[in-house]
Amino acid sequence: MEYFLLYSMGGSLLLSLIAGAISIFWLSPVWKWCRLRKNGLSGPSPHFPLGNLMEMSKKGEASAAPVTHDIHSSVFPYFSRWRNAYGKTFVYWLGTEPFLYVADPEFLKRVTSGAMGKKWGKPNVFKHDRRPMFGTGLVMADGDDWTRHRHIISPAFSMTNLNAMISVMQETTNKMLKEWGEQLALGQHEIDVEIGVTKNAAEIIAKTSFGISEEKGKKVFEKLQLMQKMLFKTNRLVGVPLGKMLSAKKSYQAWKLGKEIDQLLFAIISSRKQEYDSNDGGSTTHRDLLGLLLAGNQDNAQLERKLTTRELVDECKTFFFGGHETTALALSWTLLLLALHPEWQTALRDELMQVSGGRSLDSTMLSRLTKMGWVWNEVLRLYPPAPNVQRQAREDVETGDGVVIPRGTNMWVDAVGMHHDPALWGDDANEFRPERFKEEIHGGCKHRMGFVPFGFGGRICIGRNLTLMEFKIVLSLILREFSLTLSPSYSHSPRIMLSLRPSQGVQLILNKI
Ligand code: HEM
Question: Where are the transmembrane segments (predicted)?
Fold first, then answer.
């Protein structure tokens, strides 16, 4: 009898598990799919539980041309195919998660501008995945929490505060240039500049975020770099139920490393707090972002204007992960494009000479490097380091033409697609022409939302002034010392690896000027 009872309990447990699995893997996504179709949102047919992932894993065709900036169909071959078939908005599936693809700036404006912006948050499906990197920091925060964080953090990024970071940026970059100079002295003229600028950007962001002059800061920096590598290798079956189990070991290691980083940052913050308290809130020697946030966090600040220690830890990590790779990639792509366009190297060097006369750079000089600003925009247009922006509908969103985007639908804004669209930029959309930004900030794009290297709306990148300042300093110092040409070993293979990267590095021939 007992045996029979156990047997039947086991049987019903098994049945409920099977029913649950059928519902998660098949019924629920099929129901969502039908709802989207009913709303007129079509796209490639998904096969649950993988959705369209199989088709997305097929590699793009290698380009025969040595260097072409017409990269959309090689970095996003699946979007390129689906765009031809379904237009600039359609739905595709990452596992059982629906994603509304958008490469139509007018549509983007309609569904996100003004009060509509509040209807969107960050996709839950990525939040868990990226937790070790960003925690609950600004990049991942949502709703009132985001408003509070953004409000408190924004003043730290004021131009006055950023100007105090110029000398750190110059010192760190000079170290990189010295290393390159030593390589040249040994007769080694081919340098993979991506390696140097990435190391340099990581060091700059760590110094400007939480300082790495002392032992604990250095350790945080090393561990953050290790974690970055680990998360990069993690096999991601985003959106596929139970997909994370396949990378459980790496995820666990990243989680453990995350804990160690948190402990070190906690220790830095408490010793900074003590230092601040013993100074009686007086002058602080730390002019980094953490120091600025702590200064704004003092006792006399209202409670809602304070960040907890936990929140400060997450913001330090967010600045590191959000800030260094993107900046390094912008610089790497720029060096490549300048190697391909020596006339622009000359133009920038001439401008630099006129503005600074070879003296140490200051904020006024940086603001007068106009042509460098055009080059910056043109590089971010052709090779946006953040190639897409994602959102998730927190409630049903009406698009204005009778279509409703159901709550829970994710949105994937294809920045590469919009930045290379001849309908927005003209027939020369795939050419490097910095002068298109001479007359106006949107570079002649037919729609203001067609150029989104830093995102859009209230969530636009908080670090954009910091990164532009760093870009101008690093590039100026490089151009003052070296001329750049393309090495024959360079192979042009931009790939999406979360960010838009030169997957084989950027090998250039450097010569002292
Ligand atoms: C070329 C360099 C950079 C690029 C291309 C870039 C790109 C972006 C983009 C596209 C977003 C919007 C994401 C979204 O809406 O989902 C963003 C947000 C953000 N970025 Fe950057 N970024 C750069 C540099 C930096 C730097 C240097 C920092 C920090 C020191 C930084 C910190 C952040 C933060 C905290 C957010 C979240 C803002 C919010 O949600 O309120 N970024 N960035």
Answer: 6-28
- Place 301 in a pLDDT band, splitting at 50, 70 and 90: low
Residue 316 annotated in ligand binding: no
Distance CA 508, CA 502 (A): 13
CA of 469 to the centre of ligand 1 (A): 14
pLDDT at residue 106 in the model? 97
Q: What is the largest CA-CA distance in the chain?
A: 95
Distance of CA 79 from the midpoint of ligand 1 (Å): 24
CB 223 within 8 A of CB 303: no
| Residue 91 structure tokens | 């739905």
The secondary structure element, H or E, covering residue 502 is strand 499-502
Q: In ligand 1, which atom is closest to the CA atom of 153? A: 35
pLDDT at 63 over 60: no
Is the complex ipTM higher than 0.85? yes
The neighbour count for residue 85, using CB atoms within 10 Å, is 10
Q: Tell the residue nearest (CA) to atom 4 of ligand 1.
A: 326
Phi, psi values for residue 486, rounded to 5°: -75, 135
Q: Which of 184, 85, 125 is nearest to 481 (CA)?
A: 184
How much is the pLDDT for 277? 74
Q: In a mutational test of the pocket of ligand 1, which residue from 375, 376, 461 has the highest number of ligand atoms less than 8 Å from its CB?
A: 461
**Which atom number of ligand 1 is nearest to the Cα of residue 467?**
27
Q: From the alpha carbon of 391, which atom of ligand 1 is closest?
A: 16
Residue matched to tokens 């340099």: 200
Q: Does 297 sit in the ligand 1 pocket, CB within 6 Å? A: no
Round to whole Å and give the CA distance between 425 and 413.
17
Q: Are 272 and 286 in contact (CB under 8 A)?
A: yes
Evaluate: CB of 330 within 6 angstroms of ligand 1.
Answer: yes
Length of the chain: 513
Nearest C-alpha neighbor of 36 from the set 285, 408, 313 = 408
